[in-house]
Design goal:
The chain contains 16 helices and 20 strands. It is an alpha/beta fold. The protein folds into 2 domains: 203 residues, Leucine Aminopeptidase, subunit E, domain 1; 301 residues, Zn peptidases (Aminopeptidase), CATH 3.40.630.10. α7 runs parallel beside α10 and α9 runs antiparallel to α11. One zinc ion binds next to loops.
Length: 555
């Protein structure tokens, strides 16, 4: 029996890239935005290259047996191509004994095999799932599926001819070398879930990697519509005069100079209609290009800013994953979309702008645009849906990359349980989130103006990731006011809603891990698709309903 899942051509993703205004005659690469189809099988289909993941000793022995080389030679490389009864077999060494191998080692071994298959221009491969003592077969299968699908990626939309890489179109996970047991069914299911997740990650990567003249705010709305369409979900878009009429002046200001105007977009996944009060919000920063505005970025700092919408790509992609995997939670996926362009119509440093919540904001620097679009989106969505939990994702600050490198996202929360659960969800799926603080002094910097309620930036460059988070915190909880004089809450920055409750909130600054300067393992150079899997893992693992608020310590 074989179970096929994953879509080589997804109905959602295929339709999005059928045209390219810059390269109208370029052939549309048939694999573009697709993903290898992952199939679980009980035996490797005939004619398909099999991949064996073996302990160091077993790998060397297998290589010696089929090539006649010395053990020393066989141990020199970690991947070998051998022929057994005329069939091509890849031997990939785990580099240790089976009982010593860890998750990183298994991922790496699979990755080396995928690289070898790519160099052989193989279109199909069958990975034999090994049984590893002390680890469930489901986890082993999940890790192999994860690593194989996510290593098998290239942003090939703009490649032609020989430069188009040959990637795997079919990946099999074969259970022929493990005793058939109850564990196999669970392992096949874990692989199926991972295949769908990987497809969403690749969708996210493709969106992040596409260039800003192609993927501008209007196109991003089309993408969101295609996503909502596949989900059969309601989509709500606010743009043009409506933005102004509804008071989203911050979002309007950031996008006011761009050829394609800004917009607020919301897709509601209603996975649990019986519990309408269980609502989560997942928001992404969607700056399709960040020039910095009038505080223009210099050369060397602007180039990668087509990826400044990776938060929104993660929001849309996790929406797709939640739908395709049938997540039984109510989740509002929101994207705040604008291009931070430069020109005579651009918003200006020191402008004072009234937010949707009613708080007035003095613009400290037009390059700190992400927090502005997020602020209005947080406020409008809370007014519309009263989520008990809010997660925002944004390539928000260079300061966060300075703090953590590209190795982790900064995680700012007002709720210890949410923080711990997100860190755990990330760990499970190979994404690192690191807790970061908001100190009272960061909050003070944001409230330091005598002419406006808030300023958009901290006093200087120090602690820039934290002051950005401190700014956002003002838009959690509380109801938007008709006038600008609204209490900004107690010393925790956030204000309470009518019921006296502040939603649990997490801000994920993914400026580092969402956009890689070079390939590292299963994370490719450029847009990595970071956070999609964490969001899925969090929403399925977290208990339904509001999390308890943190207790305030007085002493
Ligand atoms: N999009 C940038 C942050 C960024 C920088 C993401 C580098 C990825 C790589 C953001 O809009 C920005 O420019 N932030 C400024 C804020 C500052 C002006 C207060 C920053 O981080 O320098
Ligand atoms: Zn910026
Ligand atoms: Zn930005």
């Amino acid at each position: 029996m074989s179970l096929a899942f994953g879509h080589i051509h997804s109905p959602t993703t295929d339709s999005l890239y059928s045209s390219n205004k810059w390269l109208p005659n370029a052939p549309v690469n048939p694999r573009m935005t697709g993903i290898a189809k992952l199939t679980t099988v009980d035996a490797t289909p005939s004619g398909v290259t099999s991949v064996r993941l073996l302990s160091k000793a077993d790998a060397a022995a297998a290589v010696v047996a089929s090539t006649g080389c010395t053990t020393e030679d066989a141990e020199r490389e970690s991947v070998f191509v051998v022929y057994e009864s005329g069939k091509r077999v890849i031997i990939s060494s785990l580099g240790s004994t089976l009982d010593k191998v860890d998750i990183g080692g298994l991922r790496k071994t699979v990755g080396s095999a995928v690289a070898k298959l790519k160099s052989l221009k193989a279109k199909e491969a069958s990975f034999l799932v090994p049984s590893i003592d002390g680890v469930s077969l489901a986890k082993v299968a999940e890790v192999i599926a994860h690593s194989a699908t996510l290593h098998n990626y290239a942003f090939d939309k703009y490649l032609t001819g020989d430069k188009v890489p040959v990637l795997l179109e079919n990946i099999y996970l074969s259970f022929e070398s493990v005793a058939s047991s109850g564990e196999v069914a669970a392992a096949k299911e874990a692989a199926r879930v991972q295949a769908v997740l990987s497809e969403s990650v690749i969708f996210c990567r493709d969106l992040g990697n596409d260039r800003a003249d192609e993927l501008h705010p209007e196109k991003l709305e089309q993408v969101a519509r295609a996503v909502a369409n596949e989900m059969g979900a309601q989509i709500h878009v606010v743009k043009g005069q409506e933005l102004v009429d509804q008071g989203l002046h911050l979002l309007a200001a950031v996008g006011q100079c761009a050829r394609y105007p800004p917009r607020y977009i919301e897709i509601f996944h209603k996975g649990d209609p019986e519990h309408p009060e269980d609502v989560l919000m997942v928001l992404g920063k969607g700056i399709t290009y960040d020039t910095g505005g009038l505080n223009i970025k210099g050369t060397g700092f602007m180039e990668n800013m087509h990826m400044d919408m990776c938060g929104s790509a993660a929001s849309l992609s996790s929406a797709l994953a939640c739908y395709r995997l049938g997540v039984k939670r109510n989740i509002v996926f929101v994207v705040a979309v604008a291009e931070n362009a430069i020109g005579s119509l651009a918003y200006k440093p020191k402008s004072i702008i009234k937010s949707h919540k009613g708080l007035t904001v003095e613009i400290g620097n037009t390059d700190a645009e992400g927090r502005l679009v997020l602020a209005d989106a947080l406020s409008l969505c809370q007014q519309r849906h009263k989520p008990h939990t809010i997660i925002d994702m944004a390539t928000l600050t260079g300061a966060c990359i300075i703090a953590l490198g590209e190795y982790a996202a900064g995680l700012f929360t007002n709720n210890a349980a949410l923080s711990a659960a997100l860190v755990k969800a990330g760990e499970k799926r190979g994404e690192r989130l690191h807790p970061m603080p908001i100190f009272p002094e960061h909050r003070e910097e944001i409230k330091s103006s005598s002419m406006s309620d808030l300023v958009s930036t901290g006093a200087g460059r120090y602690g820039g990731a934290c002051t950005a988070a401190a700014f956002l915190e003002n838009f959690i909880g509380g109801t938007p006011a008709k006038n600008s004089r609204v209490a900004t809450g107690g010393e925790d920055g956030a204000s309470k809603d009518e019921a006296g409750k502040t939603p649990a909130w997490a801000h994920i600054d993914l400026a580092g891990p969402a956009m890689y300067s070079k390939t590292r393992g299963f994370m490719p150079e450029g847009s990595t698709g970071f956070a999609v899997q964490t969001i899925y893992e969090y929403v399925i693992a977290a208990p339904a309903g509001a999390l308890p608020e943190d207790e305030k310590k007085r002493f």
